[in-house]
Amino acid sequence: MKLRDLTGQRFGRLVVLKRGPNQGRHVRWTCQCDCGTQIQVSSTNLVQGKSRSCGCLHIDIISTHRQTGSPEHKAWVAMKARCYTRSNVGYPIYGARGITVCAQWRDSFENFLADMGRKPSPAHSLDRINSAGHYSPENCRWATRLEQSNNMRSNRPLAFNGQTQNVSEWARELGLSKNCILYRLSAGWSVDRALSTPSSRPRKR
Q1: pLDDT at position 17
Q2: 3-state DSSP helix/strand/coil % of the chain, to nearest 5
Q3: Per-residue pLDDT tens for 57-66?
Q4: Structural domains of the chain, count
Q5: Which of 12, 19, 157, 169: disulfide with 165, CB 3.0–4.6 Å?
Q6: At what angle do helices 167-174 and 178-186 cross, to 10 degrees?
Q7: Do 81 and 31 fall within a single domain?
């Protein structure tokens, strides 16, 4: 049977560097763990998912259990449920739309906590900056309800001159402020009028 080359492949926290010395009839591979440790792992354990780290993952899982019930851990669990649990009430507008959690966060609460930090207050919750984007360090923040509401309005898609963009994008292109566009729309202006009417006040830079 032809040997499957695992070099360069990732298995959990392990990245295969090269083939290692055999252990009897078992083929082993030299792997680098994300924590920096190198270990020898058999092909079977890698492919079957029995080895996913040098052992540090088990330690982290114990650490994670100590965080169970914390506001940050609840946010992490809820985030994944919205994206991957079909029975979750939020799945139709998250997972069903293709919204996912980055690999860095999906299997590691520690990574999520390290990137996001603690919630600033009970009034803050997890928010995606780009509501069409995925859950990842560069697209998430802790935000209040008001901040999230403003973000949702700013990401509202507007069709104008044969092109569809959100409020923030139109503001940049047309030299208007987001608040100006949002005010006009809330006042009942049509999209065409709100975007085609020049501002009577110079935009602050």
Answers
A1: 94
A2: 40, 20, 40
A3: 665 555 555 6
A4: 3
A5: 169
A6: 120
A7: no
